[in-house]
Amino acid sequence: MRFELQSGRALLVSGPASLMVEKGSAEILGAPLHPKHGVVIKKEKQLPIETVEDSVLEARLGERASYLEIDGTTIPESWYAAVEAFKSLGRGRAFVLGSADTGKSTFCTFLTNHMIKAGAEVSVVDADIGQSDLGPPGTVGLSIIKRPMTALEYAGVYRMAFVGETSPSPVTERVIESIVKVADRAPEDIPMVINTDGWITDGDAVTFKVRMIRRLMPDLIIGLAERDELDEILDATTVPSVKIQVPKYVKARGREERRRLREYGYRRYLRGAVHKNIFLERVKIDGLLKARCKGKELLGFLDSDGLLLGIGILESLIRRRKILRAYTNVSSREVAEIDCGRIRLSCRGEELD
Ligand SMILES: Nc1ncnc2c1ncn2[C@@H]1O[C@H](COP(=O)(O)OP(=O)(O)OP(=O)(O)O)[C@@H](O)[C@H]1O
Ligand SMILES: [Mg+2]
What we know:
This protein is of the alpha+beta class. The chain is 22% helix and 34% strand.
């Protein structure tokens, strides 16, 4: 399908779709679309394509894909104001806060791209363990981003820490320690964007987020808020904050879609996995022993610094012979410790109940 878009108009595409700029100039969240380079939009996702000049786009739309042509932009004014507020700090940490489906990941991509356009490399910490863009679900990932990207999920991951859960409530301290662990590995002289999970409404969530903020000491909190839902968190800290608008065109995801997105994530990080025996002679397995595993649990293979090398799935543990059998692509030579999560998976990366 061909779209002729005038400058100043946007095309909002819900996947599954792929598209390409044939003529003219367009961008997604500040990342230019290079002519002849295709962009893929998964069926659970939606992306806004904005024209910089009159453009022709060629799109392939899959089953149930949809599109909407918009006069203007889907990016709220306040998003630009938040970018300027962060730019004026030069560097430091921006902490992005908001409920589920408010546009946190999209805003983090937008902010990162605009910081890069202003001349910076940017480190991004993705602490949303349930709907992560960097690293598989159940982990906290850090990337160093040098070029604008249409979606952060395409960035390579520089460091990861293992949590092993997709919901933060039972593992709040672990999530905070994992963020600190990867954030400490980021270069200090470049700005950092921190994305967070969408658990904000009850008292425990407020305590969790306030503790996270105190520990990470961000320089600016950027809250995606519909009304006053973030105020209790923001009022409990002295960190400067700006509230920005939840986009009108945000697309909420259901449980099934969230689960499918997580499953893509596991699969991506299990690519090339084989069934292998790992000798535990010099490997710490305290976490694994404490977890009382049934089998099929998500495993984290850690290096000697406690950072995640990669994931796997537990097949069996033969304590007598000090052998662990797992499905993984991690090379056992570098493994200093193996940890066990509560998520259980099939070898095809499907979540088991
Ligand atoms: N400004 C925008 N213009 C068009 N679409 C948007 C915009 N912001 C968000 N969306 C779309 O809405 C959906 C949800 O946004 P996003 O994934 O950024 O939210 P989130 O708060 O990170 O969600 P989660 O709670 O799952 O992490 C995505 O498909 C995204 O592309
Ligand atoms: Mg997100």
